């Protein structure tokens, strides 16, 4: 895959998606929802969002690792953060250095490419009728409960019981997730020490969950349709091959994303083989960048030793919440299948992204 080539790549079973959501004052991120205490009347907003998603598949089942970090601005010391998942996740703390290294790496690559081309909170989670509390644990400084809404309206009742504002005018979106059997990770952020007009970074969390499919990459976005303002999304995707862009109706450009960067093969690289992120000093493409990504390479060495990936950067600059809210399916990305008529497995009847067929 040279820079001037359009060679098609066959999808292979292991996928890693790195998503970085950058927001401005008139943009909101696309992966969840913040809910303030019931007596809080000021603003509470995510000023920036970063996420790393790792998805592996054996060709039959797939598992994702979603690492999220948010920057929050408000004047409150506790709040709840809700994120939907296709299945119950396991939750662990993650290293914030991952995000800085990936940001610096992509920034440097783009520069090189341009030159080449010219109130103290102590409460815990409890059960409520119509809501199943599947798990609850302390993860780092967070109190994390994974819940499933069985009956319409009961998630809001549960949030209010826990001391948080309900999700207003969101019945259609909550129905979407409930009908699909999704769960919510409800993260209580206590003693956050937020101050008005002073953004605060919260330490990352890692969610590990089965996707319920085999070749689709899931990222929660419909819940953002409940926000009031437009938002942008910036995704960094690590995959064994390129992603489907305009190959057919399942390409990410059909979702409003544009390609801004992807790795290529130099004459020193093995064609179409990806890059060895677990051992960057031994990879001809990554060698001169290895010192910039020690935490990233450590992650790959622990999770995916000897496996190779290409990095693709795609962006959507302006999503309107109402448009995203009307999507019949959440955000899914798919491999670049060489057969243009091939329908991704997860879009077929019974797959977790089958709603795509109606779009």
Quick synopsis:
This protein is α+β, with helices and mostly antiparallel strands and about 350 residues long.
Layout of helices and strands:
Blueprint: E1 14-22, E2 33-35, E3 45-57, E4 62-73, E5 78-85, E6 90-93, H1 97-117, E7 131-139, E8 142-149, H2 154-161, H3 171-179, E9 183-190, E10 200-201, E11 205-210, E12 217-219, E13 231-239, E14 258-262, H4 294-303, E15 310-319, H5 321-325, E16 331-333
Antiparallel strand pairs: 1-3, 1-13, 2-5, 3-4, 4-10, 4-11, 5-9, 6-11, 7-8, 8-9, 12-16, 13-15, 14-15
Give an account of the 3D structure.
With 359 residues, the chain is an alpha+beta fold. It has one domain (14-358). The protein is 15% helix and 31% strand. The protein contains 5 helices and 16 strands. Strands 1, 3, 4, 6, 10, 11, 13, 14 and 15 form a 9-stranded antiparallel sheet that branches. It has a 5-stranded antiparallel sheet with strand order 2-5-9-8-7. A two-stranded antiparallel sheet has the order 12-16. A hairpin with a 2-residue loop joins strand 7 (131-139) and strand 8 (142-149). Mean pLDDT is 77; it is low at 1-30, 34-48, 117-124 and 192-196.
């Amino acid at each position: 895959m040279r820079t001037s080539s359009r060679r098609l790549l066959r999808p292979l079973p292991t996928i890693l998606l790195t998503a970085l959501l950058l927001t401005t004052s008139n943009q909101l991120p696309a992966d969840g929802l913040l809910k303030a205490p019931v007596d809080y009347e000021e603003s509470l907003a995510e000023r920036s969002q970063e996420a790393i998603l790792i998805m592996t598949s054996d060709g039959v089942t797939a598992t994702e690792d979603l690492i999220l970090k948010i920057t929050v601005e408000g004047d409150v010391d506790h709040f709840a953060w809700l994120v939907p998942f296709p299945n119950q996740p396991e939750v662990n703390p993650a290293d914030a250095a991952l995000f800085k290294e990936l940001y610096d790496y992509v920034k440097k690559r783009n520069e090189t490419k341009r030159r080449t081309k010219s109130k103290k909170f102590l409460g815990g989670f409890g059960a409520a009728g119509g809501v199943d509390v599947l798990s609850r644990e302390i993860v780092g400084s967070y109190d994390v409960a994974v819940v499933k809404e069985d009956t319409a309206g009961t998630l809001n009742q549960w949030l209010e019981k826990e001391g948080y504002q309900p999700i207003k005018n969101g019945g259609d979106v909550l129905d979407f997730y409930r009908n699909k059997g999704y769960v919510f990770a409800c993260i209580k952020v206590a003693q956050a020490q937020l101050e008005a007009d002073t953004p605060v970074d919260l330490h990352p969390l890692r969610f590990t969950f089965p996707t319920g499919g085999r070749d689709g990459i899931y990222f929660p976005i419909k819940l953002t349709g409940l926000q009031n303002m437009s938002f942008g999304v910036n995704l960094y995707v690590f995959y064994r091959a390129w992603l489907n862009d305009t190959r057919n109706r399942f390409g990410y450009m059909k979702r409003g994303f544009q390609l801004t960067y992807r790795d290529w093969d130099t004459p020193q690289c093995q064609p179409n083989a990806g890059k060895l992120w677990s051992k960057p000093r031994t990879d001809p493409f990554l060698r001169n960048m290895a010192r910039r990504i020690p935490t990233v390479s450590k992650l790959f060495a622990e999770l995916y030793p000897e496996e190779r990936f290409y990095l693709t950067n795609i962006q959507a600059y302006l999503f309107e919440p109402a448009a995203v809210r009307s999507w019949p399916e959440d955000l899914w990305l798919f491999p670049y299948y060489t057969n243009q008529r091939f329908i991704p497995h997860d879009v077929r009847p019974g797959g977790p992204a089958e709603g795509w067929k109606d779009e």
